[in-house]
């Protein structure tokens, strides 16, 4: 026997043992957990899959120590819930602080938009900047993650048979689908993510938690701003944005009405505090230079409805390849589905690319006009059915027929409204549009 063969005979068992250990090694999954039923069941299901080693992480993203009216720290209570449920599942957990990242990359940019009278969505920014960026990087770099997972109701799978990259799809449970909140996350961030709840309904998730005797089975649904929670929004915002007082103004008469208590705390479609009227009045527009809040009577007032919205092409996050060229105005168009707010049923729209010069007829009610620069290109999203209360800063998300999420972007301008066009609303309007 040659020296080479004798050497191979000696090392071969060790080589085979190493290969077997590699093939049987568990992949490490780090689960972002809040103590609620969704993230708890996500961690439980992954732990049941014996090919995974699962660890829970509670993200502490908000420091309430200097916030008015906070006697106890909600984060401490939430982390105790996470520790409890992780103990029940049989996995370890830890707490990681992303307070600075949340303030710099989520909360502060939103404050700037609120101050301008816009209506940003912190939850979309939080997913992009914290859960699927800061948290994901921490999990991979410090905890050795092969995957991260969350309790979002969404699905990930290839966009077509020729692609191996994962794309975002709506969840099976249409009432709980959270792809809207994930639409600003970059494509690359999804490639090492698992959504265990994407094919489940909320009642099924509750049932799994109950059968597994998880304390989170009876946890209340989380509400409010991502990681901040539910609280009176106007008084909370006033702690960070100096209130700009002004007056309500009737959109119909132009008459100046009584004073309001804060320009930034009102959004399009919100009920206006105008007492003594036979019908409820609603905010239909905001004028920044004098902090006026424009209001109109009735939930079906035509000043609340518009046929289209403009989203800057550079502000739209395409999770898949865009179905049309984005570099110049073009008659090219594509039809798809859209959602303008969470849980709104999908509706049809037609998307084209327009220059700002072509779109100067945008709504004066909302006091937001695109720049006249021909280099500013916009997705012109034409609604098949008039849409109610489209506000600057609000995100519109586009979908393919099979539920694939193309992506989403913040509205720059809406309108003109049906009131501005002296155009009657079609009847009947679908229930979701009012």
Number of strands: 19
**Mean pLDDT, nearest integer?**
88
Biggest sheet overview:
8 strands, antiparallel
CATH classification, class level of the largest domain: Alpha Beta
User: Helical stretch count?
Assistant: 8
- Low-pLDDT runs of 5+ residues are 3-23
Looking at CATH, the homologous superfamily of the largest domain is HUPs
Order of helices and strands: HEHEHEHHEEEHEHHEEEEEEEEEEEE
Helix residue percentage = 10-25%
What is the molecular shape?
A: globular
Structural class computed from helices and strand pairing: alpha/beta
Q: Report the portion of residues in β strands.
A: 25-35%
Q: What is the CATH-assigned architecture of the largest domain? A: 3-Layer(aba) Sandwich
Catalytic activity: 5-taurinomethyluridine(34) in tRNA + S-sulfanyl-L-cysteinyl-[protein] + AH2 + ATP = 5-taurinomethyl-2-thiouridine(34) in tRNA + L-cysteinyl-[protein] + A + AMP + diphosphate + H(+)
GO molecular function: ATP binding; tRNA binding; tRNA-5-taurinomethyluridine 2-sulfurtransferase
EC number: 2.8.1.14
Enzyme class: transferase
